[in-house]
Amino acid sequence: MTEKSEKQQRWNQRYQEKTISEKPPAYVLSCNQNFLTKKGTALDLACGLGANALFLANNGYQVTAIDYADEALKQLSGYAQDHGLSIKTQNIDLEKLSLDIGFYDVVVVSYYLQRDLFPFIFNSLKPGGILFYQTYSGQCIDGNGPENPAFRLRQGELLSLCAEHSILYYREDGDCCIGQDCFNGEAMIVAKRE
Question: pTM of the prediction?
């Protein structure tokens, strides 16, 4: 067995302190579930404890959940097995990821940003497949998300990363949105592969 990298150990530590609960899926997925069919293949990329994967599996999808933290995947796999959900987990360093071309009906990514993955994500979708994506943008507000701007989208960047595809939904809250439905410092999109 190979020794775990320092990065993987940090992620595992994070998930050893958490457990799967009834955490809701990403807002971009739950508020746009009307774009889902009731069956098909789905990918939850950088899944963590798998709230998106669980949501998709409960909606009839055969889900592949990928993350670098094997601790999170172990919890998710056990939960899926105990509840009879169709979720296959894969422990992969996302910086070395390769995806099957034209395989998924749905891909969900929440709170993970690796800009060079966007072409591979879209290529992994079947024609007409849907990407649900939500992550941090702009500046760090109230300590939410990464402080390093390299891990945050620039204003309008998510639109440009998905520009070759049909935009079904887009939202980017700056730092002055007020109310309980605000996502200050976040951007989200639903895009259909052309």
Answer: 0.88
SS3 50: coil
Name, in order, each residue with C-beta under 8 angstroms of 116's C-beta and a sequence gap of 6 or more. Answer: none
Residue 185 corresponds to which tokens in the numbers above? 């410092």
| 3-state SS class at 178 | coil
Where do the domains of the chain lie? 24-192
| Interatomic CA distance for residues 42 and 125, integer angstroms | 9
Shortest CA distance to 128 belongs to which of 113, 110, 107? 107
How far apart are alpha carbons 57 and 53 in whole angstroms? 6
| Of 44, 43, 54, residue with least CA distance to 20 | 54
Segment 2-50, tens digit of pLDDT: 556 776 666 556 656 666 766 899 999 999 999 998 899 999 999 999 9
Residues 6+ apart with CB under 8 A from 121: 45, 99, 107, 109, 131
Superfamily, domain 24-192: Vaccinia Virus protein VP39 (3.40.50.150)
